[in-house]
Design brief:
The radius of gyration is 22 Å and the shape is globular. It is built from twelve helices and 20 strands. It folds into three domains: about 170 residues, Adenylosuccinate Synthetase, subunit A, domain 1 (Adenylosuccinate Synthetase, Chain A, domain 1), CATH 3.40.440; about 100 residues, Adenylosuccinate Synthetase, subunit A, domain 2 (Orthogonal Bundle), CATH 1.10.300.10; about 160 residues, Alpha-Beta Complex (Adenylosuccinate Synthetase, Chain A, domain 3). With about 425 residues, the chain is of the alpha/beta class. It has a ten-stranded mixed beta sheet, with helices on both faces. Strands 14, 16, 17 and 18 form a four-stranded mixed beta sheet that branches. A hairpin with a 2-residue loop joins strand 3 and strand 4. About 45% of the residues are buried. The longest helix is centred in the middle third of the chain and has 22 residues. The protein binds inosinic acid.
């Protein structure tokens, strides 16, 4: 049984909590794309830790956690996370598996990412990236210059590849960005050291997953970021560099698309976005502050305040269609508890006409007027609700309307950060 859990907006929908919830009954969880740009909070006792690469299921002692072939791995970050988890007494041996096909984030990828963002002027867009080297690593992957985990096994080959890449990269660093250049030897030495520590976890994770399928294991695919950050359907160029939609769950894991039984999309009861790019239902800073403060809307990776706005059903509907979503999970409903009035965007109008499709052209998307429906709030605390009928009538009406306009049934509703604050509808 394979369930893919993906983000249905611009990331930060609360996937970490929900993946952890699903992992209670799962044998395996696999991350399939992105890298240390993602961030999920793990709570151990009264302390909170943020993990970027290791799947959210790691706290579940029975779940095998896989970093799949579509992920780009920054070994330094990965080893920090391994050390942190070990220091917390969490056992990883035999539980953490790393794909030998995954690409490695190199120090120059992070430098190029950050320098490009800093130097962005009118001729190149500032994306507002996380600065974790994600875009440049995928660029090298597609350009066939990438360095994969499997290359670490051959010191001579990795040395040659790094030297070749630096021939070009140093020209860009020094010539274009006026930045210090890099020495191949230092990088080679560091990465061979990383390899020694990563070695026990490296395997062919695609083969492992396909064997697990034959043994009828329960597998959760953990997507990162969200549909509108997808390189193909997202608000390009203000997107990440991988496929965050259901398609990426197959290519990034090595599990065939026909083997994915259920695609679940997680969406917040409102909308947020970090980084640049259009956001039709964005609220002015002051109004957005209510949601930002109550929802703790600050980036887990960068700490940046998230932009906040009303629920955009037009966008979620488009995202669901692009991934063939079967079920929705609504998170952070409780953040809306105090509001007297709520708005749902049910479509866009542009130059006096209602748009039929979610626009590809960002000039249009930036200029649309959201068509809103206004609903009454419930102004009651939902954080203790245990079942759907415990929710106030207006909260149920709000969820019903979301379901109707998006056209996908809601399976779960989250009303707080704890596992127990999850309502099965
Ligand atoms: P990158 O993935 O670091 O290249 O950043 C590209 C865009 O994706 C930027 O707008 C980032 O803010 C956004 N982004 C990347 N990862 C996440 C995430 O985990 N949550 C929300 N936004 C993200």
């Amino acid at each position: 049984m394979v369930t893919a859990i993906i983000g249905g907006q611009w990331g930060d929908e609360g996937k970490g909590k929900m993946v952890d919830y699903y992992c209670q009954n799962a044998d395996i969880v696999v991350r399939v794309q992105g890298g240390a740009n993602a961030g999920h909070t793990v709570v151990v006792g009264d302390k909170k830790y943020i993990l970027h690469l290791i799947p959210s299921g790691i706290l579940n002692p029975k779940t095998i956690c896989i970093i799949g072939q579509g992920v780009v791995i920054d070994p330094a970050t990965l080893l920090e996370e391994i050390a942190l988890l070990k220091s917390l007494g969490i056992k990883l041996d035999g539980r953490l598996l790393i794909s030998n096909r995954a690409h490695l984030v190199m120090p120059y990828h992070k430098m190029l990412d950050q320098l490009k963002e800093k130097s962005a002027d009118g001729t190149s867009a500032k994306i507002g990236t996380t600065g974790r080297g994600i875009g440049p690593t995928y660029m090298d992957k597609v350009a066939r210059n990438g360095i994969r985990v499997v290359d670490l096994l051959k010191p001579e080959q990795i040395k040659k590849k790094i030297e070749e890449n630096l021939n070009f990269v140093n020209k860009v660093l020094g010539g274009i960005y006026n930045s210090p250049t890099l020495e191949a030897k230092t990088i080679v030495d560091d990465y061979l050291k990383y390899d020694k520590e990563m070695d026990p976890y490296i395997t062919d994770t695609g083969a492992y997953l396909n064997q697990a399928l034959r043994e009828k294991k329960t597998i959760i695919i953990e997507g990162a970021q969200g549909a509108l950050l997808d390189i193909d359907i997202g608000t390009y160029p203000y997107v990440t560099a991988s496929n965050t939609t259901a398609g990426g769950c197959a290519t990034g894991s090595g599990i065939g698309p026909t083997k994915i039984d259920t695609v679940v999309s997680i969406v917040k009861a409102y909308t947020t976005r970090v980084g640049e790019g259009p956001f039709p239902t964005e609220l002015p800073v002051k109004e957005g502050n209510t949601l930002r403060e109550k929802g703790q809307e600050f980036g887990a990776t960068t700490g940046r305040p998230r932009r906040c706005g009303w629920f955009d059903a037009e966008l979620v509907k488009f995202a669901c269609e692009s991934s063939g979503v079967d079920e929705l999970i609504i998170t952070k409903l409780d953040v809306l508890d105090d509001l007297a009035k709520l708005k749902i965007c049910t479509g866009y109008s542009f130059e006096g006409k209602t748009l039929k499709y979610f626009p590809a052209d960002l000039d249009i998307l930036s200029g649309v007027t959201p068509i809103y429906e206004e609903l009454s709030g419930w102004q009651a605390n939902t954080t203790g609700a245990k079942q759907f009928s415990d929710l106030p009538v207006n909260a149920r009406a709000y969820l019903k309307r979301l379901e109707e306009v998006v056209g996908v049934p809601i399976k779960l509703v989250s009303v707080g950060p704890e596992r127990t604050q999850t309502i099965v509808k």
